[in-house]
Design goal:
Shape: rod-shaped
Largest sheet: none
Helix content: over 70%
Radius of gyration: 24 Å
Number of strands: 0
Structural class: mainly alpha
Number of domains: 1
Strand content: under 5%
Number of helices: 1
Length: 58
């Protein structure tokens, strides 16, 4: 009886984890995309300025 109960509890935990991870995934996608584009543009600006500095240093 105990074994069945523990297995049921494990299944519940898995279900909860799946729900949480899918919510987390959606949240991450919604918030990561604007952040990624921001980071991308910032990196692009940094790379350009570094490249210009290296070109002028030569």
């Amino acid at each position: 009886m105990q074994h069945v109960q523990s297995r049921h509890r494990a299944e519940e935990r898995m279900q909860l984890h799946a729900t949480l991870s899918s919510k987390q995934h959606r949240y991450t996608i919604e918030h990561a995309l604007p952040a990624a584009s921001f980071v991308h543009s910032t990196l692009h600006i940094c790379l350009e300025s570094v490249t210009c500095r290296m070109a002028s240093a030569k």
